[in-house]
Structure prediction request, 439 residues.
Amino acid sequence: MKITVIGLGYLGATHAVAMSKTGHQVIGLEKNPAKLESLKQGKAGFFEPGLDEALAVEIASGRLTFQADHDENSAAADLHFICVGTPQTKESLAADTSYLFSAIEDLAPHLKPESVVVGKSTVPVGTAAALHSRLAELTGFEPHLAWNPEFLREGTALEDSLRPDRLVVGVNDERSEAALREVFAPMIASGIPFLVVDIPTAELVKAAANAFLATKISFINAMAEIAEVAGADASQLAEAIGYDERIGNKFLRNGVGFGGGCLPKDIRALMARAEELGVGQSVAYLKEIDNINLRRRERVVAMLEAELGNLSKKRILVLGAAFKPDSDDVRDSPALGIAMLAYAKGAEVVIHDPVALPGVALKHPELIGQQDLEKAFSDVEAVVLATEWREYRQLDPATVVGKVANALIIDGRNVLDINSWQHAGFKVLALGKNVKGNK
Ligand code: UDX
Prediction:
Protein backbone atom coordinates (compact mmCIF):
# COMPACT_ATOMS: atom_id res chain seq x y z
CA MET A 1 0.00 0.00 0.00
CA LYS A 2 1.01 3.59 -0.27
CA ILE A 3 1.18 5.40 3.05
CA THR A 4 2.42 8.62 4.59
CA VAL A 5 3.79 8.99 8.09
CA ILE A 6 3.34 12.52 9.39
CA GLY A 7 5.78 13.65 12.11
CA LEU A 8 9.04 11.74 12.34
CA GLY A 9 10.03 11.75 16.00
CA TYR A 10 10.58 8.54 17.93
CA LEU A 11 7.20 7.07 17.04
CA GLY A 12 6.99 8.31 13.44
CA ALA A 13 10.53 7.47 12.35
CA THR A 14 10.21 3.96 13.77
CA HIS A 15 6.75 3.43 12.27
CA ALA A 16 7.96 4.65 8.85
CA VAL A 17 10.83 2.16 8.88
CA ALA A 18 8.59 -0.66 10.11
CA MET A 19 5.98 -0.01 7.40
CA SER A 20 8.66 0.14 4.70
CA LYS A 21 10.16 -3.11 6.01
CA THR A 22 6.68 -4.64 5.80
CA GLY A 23 6.75 -3.87 2.06
CA HIS A 24 4.70 -0.69 1.81
CA GLN A 25 5.62 2.44 -0.14
CA VAL A 26 6.22 5.03 2.58
CA ILE A 27 6.51 8.82 2.41
CA GLY A 28 7.71 10.36 5.67
CA LEU A 29 6.68 13.98 6.26
CA GLU A 30 8.72 16.13 8.60
CA LYS A 31 8.52 19.91 8.99
CA ASN A 32 11.76 20.45 10.90
CA PRO A 33 14.39 21.07 8.16
CA ALA A 34 17.35 19.75 10.19
CA LYS A 35 15.48 16.57 11.12
CA LEU A 36 14.33 16.09 7.52
CA GLU A 37 17.87 16.44 6.16
CA SER A 38 19.21 14.02 8.75
CA LEU A 39 16.53 11.43 7.92
CA LYS A 40 17.34 11.69 4.22
CA GLN A 41 20.93 10.84 5.18
CA GLY A 42 19.70 7.76 7.03
CA LYS A 43 20.03 9.19 10.56
CA ALA A 44 17.00 9.14 12.85
CA GLY A 45 18.57 11.82 15.05
CA PHE A 46 18.19 9.90 18.33
CA PHE A 47 19.86 6.84 19.81
CA GLU A 48 17.89 3.70 19.08
CA PRO A 49 19.88 0.49 18.57
CA GLY A 50 19.55 -0.80 14.98
CA LEU A 51 17.28 1.96 13.72
CA ASP A 52 19.77 3.94 11.61
CA GLU A 53 20.96 0.74 9.93
CA ALA A 54 17.37 -0.24 9.11
CA LEU A 55 16.65 3.30 7.92
CA ALA A 56 19.55 3.15 5.46
CA VAL A 57 18.40 -0.22 4.11
CA GLU A 58 14.81 0.99 3.58
CA ILE A 59 15.93 4.23 1.89
CA ALA A 60 18.18 2.20 -0.43
CA SER A 61 15.27 -0.14 -1.25
CA GLY A 62 13.42 2.84 -2.73
CA ARG A 63 10.36 2.18 -0.56
CA LEU A 64 11.05 4.97 1.94
CA THR A 65 11.36 8.67 1.04
CA PHE A 66 11.10 11.89 3.01
CA GLN A 67 9.71 15.34 2.25
CA ALA A 68 8.61 18.46 4.11
CA ASP A 69 5.15 19.05 2.70
CA HIS A 70 2.22 17.25 1.16
CA ASP A 71 2.10 17.10 -2.63
CA GLU A 72 0.24 15.14 -5.31
CA ASN A 73 2.36 12.09 -4.64
CA SER A 74 1.70 11.98 -0.90
CA ALA A 75 -1.98 12.83 -1.49
CA ALA A 76 -2.33 9.56 -3.40
CA ALA A 77 -1.66 7.55 -0.21
CA ASP A 78 -4.18 4.95 0.95
CA LEU A 79 -3.45 5.75 4.58
CA HIS A 80 -1.99 8.75 6.40
CA PHE A 81 -0.52 7.89 9.82
CA ILE A 82 -0.26 10.88 12.15
CA CYS A 83 2.60 10.47 14.63
CA VAL A 84 3.22 13.99 15.96
CA GLY A 85 4.08 14.58 19.62
CA THR A 86 1.59 15.34 22.41
CA PRO A 87 3.86 16.69 25.19
CA GLN A 88 2.67 17.86 28.60
CA THR A 89 1.50 21.48 28.46
CA LYS A 90 3.58 24.03 30.39
CA GLU A 91 0.67 25.33 32.44
CA SER A 92 -1.04 22.08 33.51
CA LEU A 93 -0.93 18.29 33.64
CA ALA A 94 -2.85 18.03 30.36
CA ALA A 95 -1.37 16.93 27.02
CA ASP A 96 -0.82 19.50 24.28
CA THR A 97 -2.72 18.28 21.21
CA SER A 98 -2.03 21.35 19.06
CA TYR A 99 0.45 19.53 16.80
CA LEU A 100 -2.30 17.11 15.83
CA PHE A 101 -4.61 19.91 14.81
CA SER A 102 -1.83 21.57 12.77
CA ALA A 103 -1.15 18.25 11.04
CA ILE A 104 -4.84 18.01 10.12
CA GLU A 105 -4.86 21.61 8.78
CA ASP A 106 -1.90 20.80 6.52
CA LEU A 107 -3.35 17.50 5.34
CA ALA A 108 -6.93 18.63 4.69
CA PRO A 109 -6.40 20.43 1.32
CA HIS A 110 -4.70 17.28 -0.04
CA LEU A 111 -6.89 14.61 1.53
CA LYS A 112 -8.79 12.34 -0.85
CA PRO A 113 -12.23 11.22 0.40
CA GLU A 114 -11.30 7.54 0.09
CA SER A 115 -7.98 7.83 2.03
CA VAL A 116 -7.90 6.81 5.68
CA VAL A 117 -6.36 9.06 8.34
CA VAL A 118 -4.94 7.06 11.25
CA GLY A 119 -3.88 8.72 14.47
CA LYS A 120 -1.08 6.98 16.35
CA SER A 121 -0.11 9.70 18.82
CA THR A 122 -1.01 9.20 22.48
CA VAL A 123 -4.03 11.41 23.11
CA PRO A 124 -6.60 12.28 25.75
CA VAL A 125 -9.77 10.27 25.09
CA GLY A 126 -12.10 12.35 22.91
CA THR A 127 -9.37 13.96 20.81
CA ALA A 128 -10.14 11.85 17.74
CA ALA A 129 -13.77 13.01 17.73
CA ALA A 130 -12.62 16.64 17.76
CA LEU A 131 -10.14 15.95 14.98
CA HIS A 132 -12.84 14.23 12.97
CA SER A 133 -15.15 17.26 13.19
CA ARG A 134 -12.35 19.64 12.27
CA LEU A 135 -11.31 17.52 9.30
CA ALA A 136 -14.93 17.30 8.07
CA GLU A 137 -15.20 21.09 8.37
CA LEU A 138 -11.96 21.64 6.43
CA THR A 139 -12.57 19.11 3.67
CA GLY A 140 -16.33 19.35 3.27
CA PHE A 141 -16.70 15.57 3.33
CA GLU A 142 -17.03 12.87 5.98
CA PRO A 143 -13.41 11.71 6.47
CA HIS A 144 -12.30 8.20 7.39
CA LEU A 145 -10.51 8.66 10.69
CA ALA A 146 -9.21 5.77 12.80
CA TRP A 147 -6.98 5.39 15.85
CA ASN A 148 -4.11 2.93 16.22
CA PRO A 149 -2.14 3.37 19.47
CA GLU A 150 1.52 2.43 19.53
CA PHE A 151 3.13 0.63 22.46
CA LEU A 152 6.80 0.74 21.47
CA ARG A 153 9.49 1.00 24.11
CA GLU A 154 12.62 3.04 23.55
CA GLY A 155 15.61 0.76 23.08
CA THR A 156 13.52 -1.96 21.37
CA ALA A 157 11.39 0.37 19.27
CA LEU A 158 11.73 -1.28 15.86
CA GLU A 159 11.25 -4.79 17.22
CA ASP A 160 8.19 -3.60 19.19
CA SER A 161 6.74 -2.03 16.01
CA LEU A 162 7.34 -5.06 13.84
CA ARG A 163 6.29 -7.67 16.39
CA PRO A 164 3.96 -5.95 18.86
CA ASP A 165 2.17 -7.95 21.59
CA ARG A 166 -1.08 -6.82 19.98
CA LEU A 167 -2.44 -4.46 17.36
CA VAL A 168 -5.34 -2.28 18.47
CA VAL A 169 -7.38 -0.31 15.95
CA GLY A 170 -10.24 2.01 16.78
CA VAL A 171 -12.60 2.50 13.85
CA ASN A 172 -16.12 3.67 13.12
CA ASP A 173 -16.40 2.75 9.45
CA GLU A 174 -15.77 -0.33 7.35
CA ARG A 175 -13.35 1.28 4.96
CA SER A 176 -10.96 2.20 7.80
CA GLU A 177 -11.06 -1.32 9.21
CA ALA A 178 -10.42 -2.88 5.78
CA ALA A 179 -7.48 -0.54 5.09
CA LEU A 180 -5.93 -1.24 8.49
CA ARG A 181 -6.38 -5.00 8.07
CA GLU A 182 -4.59 -4.72 4.75
CA VAL A 183 -1.70 -2.55 5.94
CA PHE A 184 -1.06 -4.87 8.90
CA ALA A 185 -1.82 -8.08 6.95
CA PRO A 186 1.64 -9.68 7.36
CA MET A 187 1.59 -9.08 11.14
CA ILE A 188 -1.97 -10.40 11.47
CA ALA A 189 -0.98 -13.47 9.42
CA SER A 190 1.94 -14.10 11.78
CA GLY A 191 -0.53 -14.50 14.65
CA ILE A 192 -0.31 -11.10 16.36
CA PRO A 193 -3.68 -10.46 18.07
CA PHE A 194 -5.66 -7.82 16.14
CA LEU A 195 -8.28 -6.03 18.19
CA VAL A 196 -10.92 -3.92 16.48
CA VAL A 197 -12.53 -1.53 18.97
CA ASP A 198 -14.35 1.78 18.96
CA ILE A 199 -12.31 4.94 18.78
CA PRO A 200 -12.55 6.13 22.43
CA THR A 201 -11.45 2.67 23.58
CA ALA A 202 -8.44 2.79 21.25
CA GLU A 203 -7.51 6.22 22.62
CA LEU A 204 -7.86 4.98 26.21
CA VAL A 205 -5.92 1.73 25.76
CA LYS A 206 -2.59 3.48 25.64
CA ALA A 207 -3.32 5.66 28.67
CA ALA A 208 -4.61 2.63 30.57
CA ALA A 209 -1.59 0.47 29.72
CA ASN A 210 0.87 3.16 30.78
CA ALA A 211 -1.08 3.94 33.96
CA PHE A 212 -0.97 0.24 34.85
CA LEU A 213 2.78 -0.02 34.18
CA ALA A 214 3.49 3.13 36.22
CA THR A 215 1.32 1.75 39.03
CA LYS A 216 3.27 -1.52 39.07
CA ILE A 217 6.59 0.31 39.40
CA SER A 218 5.33 2.69 42.07
CA PHE A 219 3.72 -0.21 43.92
CA ILE A 220 7.04 -1.96 44.37
CA ASN A 221 8.72 1.36 45.18
CA ALA A 222 6.11 1.97 47.88
CA MET A 223 6.98 -1.48 49.27
CA ALA A 224 10.63 -0.38 49.09
CA GLU A 225 9.83 2.60 51.34
CA ILE A 226 8.39 0.20 53.89
CA ALA A 227 11.22 -2.31 53.44
CA GLU A 228 13.82 0.36 54.13
CA VAL A 229 12.44 1.15 57.57
CA ALA A 230 11.35 -2.40 58.42
CA GLY A 231 14.62 -4.09 57.52
CA ALA A 232 13.11 -6.05 54.60
CA ASP A 233 14.36 -6.38 51.03
CA ALA A 234 12.09 -5.06 48.24
CA SER A 235 13.90 -6.95 45.46
CA GLN A 236 13.32 -10.27 47.26
CA LEU A 237 9.75 -9.20 47.86
CA ALA A 238 9.29 -8.52 44.12
CA GLU A 239 10.69 -11.92 43.24
CA ALA A 240 8.47 -13.63 45.78
CA ILE A 241 5.22 -11.98 44.67
CA GLY A 242 6.20 -12.14 40.99
CA TYR A 243 5.95 -15.93 40.95
CA ASP A 244 2.21 -15.52 41.35
CA GLU A 245 1.19 -15.54 37.69
CA ARG A 246 -1.61 -13.12 38.41
CA ILE A 247 0.99 -10.58 39.50
CA GLY A 248 3.92 -11.50 37.22
CA ASN A 249 7.53 -10.48 37.72
CA LYS A 250 7.82 -7.89 34.94
CA PHE A 251 7.90 -4.17 35.71
CA LEU A 252 8.47 -4.86 39.38
CA ARG A 253 12.07 -3.70 39.59
CA ASN A 254 12.38 -1.27 42.47
CA GLY A 255 14.80 1.59 42.28
CA VAL A 256 14.87 5.30 41.43
CA GLY A 257 11.61 4.94 39.52
CA PHE A 258 10.22 5.62 36.09
CA GLY A 259 10.92 8.48 33.71
CA GLY A 260 10.97 9.08 29.98
CA GLY A 261 8.70 10.72 27.46
CA CYS A 262 5.66 8.52 28.15
CA LEU A 263 4.90 7.12 31.59
CA PRO A 264 5.10 10.38 33.62
CA LYS A 265 3.34 12.48 30.98
CA ASP A 266 0.68 9.90 30.23
CA ILE A 267 -0.45 9.39 33.84
CA ARG A 268 -0.65 13.17 34.29
CA ALA A 269 -2.63 13.57 31.05
CA LEU A 270 -5.03 10.82 32.15
CA MET A 271 -5.64 12.57 35.47
CA ALA A 272 -6.26 15.87 33.66
CA ARG A 273 -8.67 14.29 31.16
CA ALA A 274 -10.58 12.34 33.81
CA GLU A 275 -10.99 15.59 35.73
CA GLU A 276 -12.37 17.32 32.61
CA LEU A 277 -14.82 14.46 32.13
CA GLY A 278 -16.05 14.80 35.71
CA VAL A 279 -14.56 11.49 36.88
CA GLY A 280 -11.31 12.80 38.36
CA GLN A 281 -11.71 10.57 41.43
CA SER A 282 -11.33 7.43 39.30
CA VAL A 283 -7.66 8.06 38.74
CA ALA A 284 -6.92 10.42 41.61
CA TYR A 285 -4.70 7.61 42.97
CA LEU A 286 -2.30 8.28 40.07
CA LYS A 287 -1.23 11.45 41.85
CA GLU A 288 0.18 9.22 44.57
CA ILE A 289 1.81 7.00 41.93
CA ASP A 290 3.56 10.11 40.64
CA ASN A 291 4.47 11.21 44.19
CA ILE A 292 5.93 7.82 45.16
CA ASN A 293 7.98 7.93 41.98
CA LEU A 294 9.37 11.41 42.65
CA ARG A 295 10.05 10.59 46.34
CA ARG A 296 12.56 7.91 45.27
CA ARG A 297 14.77 10.63 43.82
CA GLU A 298 14.60 12.60 47.08
CA ARG A 299 15.39 9.44 49.02
CA VAL A 300 18.72 9.04 47.18
CA VAL A 301 19.71 12.60 48.05
CA ALA A 302 18.65 12.05 51.68
CA MET A 303 20.88 8.95 51.76
CA LEU A 304 23.80 11.04 50.48
CA GLU A 305 23.16 13.64 53.18
CA ALA A 306 22.92 10.99 55.87
CA GLU A 307 26.36 9.72 54.83
CA LEU A 308 28.18 12.92 53.88
CA GLY A 309 26.40 15.58 55.91
CA ASN A 310 25.79 18.90 54.17
CA LEU A 311 26.26 18.41 50.42
CA SER A 312 27.54 21.94 49.82
CA LYS A 313 30.71 21.80 47.65
CA LYS A 314 30.77 18.01 47.85
CA ARG A 315 31.57 16.41 44.50
CA ILE A 316 29.10 13.66 43.63
CA LEU A 317 29.19 11.38 40.60
CA VAL A 318 25.88 10.33 39.06
CA LEU A 319 26.25 7.32 36.78
CA GLY A 320 23.71 7.63 33.99
CA ALA A 321 21.62 10.48 32.65
CA ALA A 322 19.20 8.74 30.29
CA PHE A 323 15.88 7.61 31.79
CA LYS A 324 16.85 4.02 31.02
CA PRO A 325 19.76 2.20 29.32
CA ASP A 326 19.96 1.96 25.51
CA SER A 327 18.41 5.38 25.16
CA ASP A 328 19.71 8.94 24.96
CA ASP A 329 16.39 10.30 26.16
CA VAL A 330 16.70 12.48 29.27
CA ARG A 331 13.07 13.57 29.45
CA ASP A 332 11.82 13.26 33.04
CA SER A 333 14.88 11.14 33.78
CA PRO A 334 15.23 9.97 37.41
CA ALA A 335 19.04 10.21 37.02
CA LEU A 336 18.87 13.86 36.00
CA GLY A 337 16.30 14.50 38.72
CA ILE A 338 18.70 13.17 41.36
CA ALA A 339 21.60 15.16 39.87
CA MET A 340 19.58 18.38 39.98
CA LEU A 341 18.33 17.77 43.54
CA ALA A 342 21.93 17.26 44.71
CA TYR A 343 23.00 20.34 42.76
CA ALA A 344 20.25 22.36 44.44
CA LYS A 345 21.75 21.33 47.79
CA GLY A 346 25.07 22.84 46.75
CA ALA A 347 26.85 19.71 45.51
CA GLU A 348 29.16 19.77 42.51
CA VAL A 349 27.61 17.11 40.33
CA VAL A 350 29.59 15.14 37.77
CA ILE A 351 27.39 13.12 35.44
CA HIS A 352 28.40 10.30 33.12
CA ASP A 353 26.38 8.64 30.40
CA PRO A 354 27.58 6.67 27.36
CA VAL A 355 25.25 8.50 24.95
CA ALA A 356 22.99 11.05 26.65
CA LEU A 357 25.43 13.81 27.65
CA PRO A 358 24.65 16.15 24.70
CA GLY A 359 21.03 16.31 25.91
CA VAL A 360 22.22 17.04 29.45
CA ALA A 361 24.50 19.87 28.29
CA LEU A 362 21.56 21.52 26.53
CA LYS A 363 19.17 21.26 29.48
CA HIS A 364 21.49 21.52 32.47
CA PRO A 365 24.85 23.13 31.67
CA GLU A 366 25.34 23.52 35.45
CA LEU A 367 26.10 19.79 35.70
CA ILE A 368 29.62 18.62 34.87
CA GLY A 369 29.34 16.13 32.02
CA GLN A 370 32.20 13.61 31.78
CA GLN A 371 32.26 11.15 28.90
CA ASP A 372 35.26 9.18 30.19
CA LEU A 373 34.05 6.73 32.85
CA GLU A 374 37.34 6.36 34.75
CA LYS A 375 37.93 10.13 34.77
CA ALA A 376 34.38 10.68 36.01
CA PHE A 377 35.29 8.97 39.31
CA SER A 378 38.23 11.35 39.97
CA ASP A 379 38.03 13.18 43.27
CA VAL A 380 34.37 12.49 43.93
CA GLU A 381 33.07 11.87 47.45
CA ALA A 382 30.31 9.46 46.53
CA VAL A 383 28.73 7.75 43.54
CA VAL A 384 25.09 7.17 42.64
CA LEU A 385 24.23 4.54 40.05
CA ALA A 386 21.04 5.96 38.54
CA THR A 387 20.72 4.29 35.11
CA GLU A 388 21.66 0.62 34.76
CA TRP A 389 23.92 0.82 31.69
CA ARG A 390 25.88 -2.38 31.07
CA GLU A 391 29.24 -0.60 31.50
CA TYR A 392 28.34 0.22 35.11
CA ARG A 393 27.26 -3.31 35.92
CA GLN A 394 30.48 -4.65 34.38
CA LEU A 395 32.79 -2.10 35.96
CA ASP A 396 35.60 -3.55 38.08
CA PRO A 397 35.23 -1.69 41.41
CA ALA A 398 38.91 -2.25 42.23
CA THR A 399 39.89 0.11 39.38
CA VAL A 400 37.91 3.04 40.76
CA VAL A 401 37.74 2.60 44.54
CA GLY A 402 40.89 4.65 45.16
CA LYS A 403 39.37 7.67 43.43
CA VAL A 404 36.27 7.99 45.60
CA ALA A 405 37.00 9.86 48.84
CA ASN A 406 34.37 8.13 50.96
CA ALA A 407 34.30 4.95 48.84
CA LEU A 408 30.53 5.19 48.91
CA ILE A 409 28.20 4.00 46.15
CA ILE A 410 24.42 4.06 46.18
CA ASP A 411 22.91 1.49 43.84
CA GLY A 412 19.74 3.21 42.64
CA ARG A 413 18.76 0.33 40.36
CA ASN A 414 19.68 -2.73 42.42
CA VAL A 415 21.98 -4.13 39.74
CA LEU A 416 25.44 -4.20 41.35
CA ASP A 417 27.10 -7.29 42.73
CA ILE A 418 27.22 -5.94 46.27
CA ASN A 419 29.79 -8.48 47.52
CA SER A 420 32.38 -7.61 44.91
CA TRP A 421 31.96 -3.87 45.45
CA GLN A 422 32.28 -4.33 49.20
CA HIS A 423 35.26 -6.61 48.69
CA ALA A 424 36.98 -3.86 46.66
CA GLY A 425 36.49 -1.51 49.63
CA PHE A 426 33.25 0.29 48.82
CA LYS A 427 30.44 0.96 51.21
CA VAL A 428 27.36 -0.01 49.23
CA LEU A 429 23.88 1.33 49.89
CA ALA A 430 20.84 0.43 47.83
CA LEU A 431 17.20 1.44 47.55
CA GLY A 432 14.62 -0.83 49.13
CA LYS A 433 16.98 -2.74 51.42
CA ASN A 434 19.40 -2.36 54.30
CA VAL A 435 22.64 -3.64 52.81
CA LYS A 436 24.56 -5.92 55.17
CA GLY A 437 28.32 -6.45 55.27
CA ASN A 438 29.46 -2.83 54.97
CA LYS A 439 32.55 -2.04 57.03
C1 UDX B 1 6.87 3.01 27.92
C2 UDX B 1 5.97 1.76 27.72
O1 UDX B 1 6.65 0.60 28.18
C3 UDX B 1 5.62 1.62 26.25
O2 UDX B 1 4.75 0.53 26.06
C4 UDX B 1 4.98 2.90 25.77
O3 UDX B 1 4.70 2.83 24.39
C5 UDX B 1 5.87 4.10 26.05
O4 UDX B 1 6.21 4.15 27.43
P1 UDX B 1 9.45 3.56 27.53
O5 UDX B 1 9.13 4.94 27.98
O6 UDX B 1 10.32 3.37 26.35
O7 UDX B 1 8.10 2.76 27.23
O8 UDX B 1 10.17 2.85 28.75
P2 UDX B 1 9.94 1.57 29.68
O9 UDX B 1 10.83 0.49 29.27
O10 UDX B 1 8.52 1.27 29.83
O11 UDX B 1 10.52 2.13 31.06
C6 UDX B 1 9.93 3.28 31.67
C7 UDX B 1 10.66 3.68 32.92
O12 UDX B 1 10.35 2.77 33.97
C8 UDX B 1 12.18 3.70 32.83
O13 UDX B 1 12.64 4.87 33.48
C9 UDX B 1 12.60 2.45 33.55
O14 UDX B 1 13.87 2.57 34.13
C10 UDX B 1 11.52 2.34 34.62
N1 UDX B 1 11.29 0.98 35.13
C11 UDX B 1 10.85 0.00 34.28
C12 UDX B 1 11.46 0.70 36.49
O15 UDX B 1 11.84 1.58 37.26
N2 UDX B 1 11.18 -0.56 36.95
C13 UDX B 1 10.75 -1.55 36.13
O16 UDX B 1 10.51 -2.66 36.63
C14 UDX B 1 10.58 -1.26 34.76
Q: What stands out?
A: The radius of gyration is 24 Å.
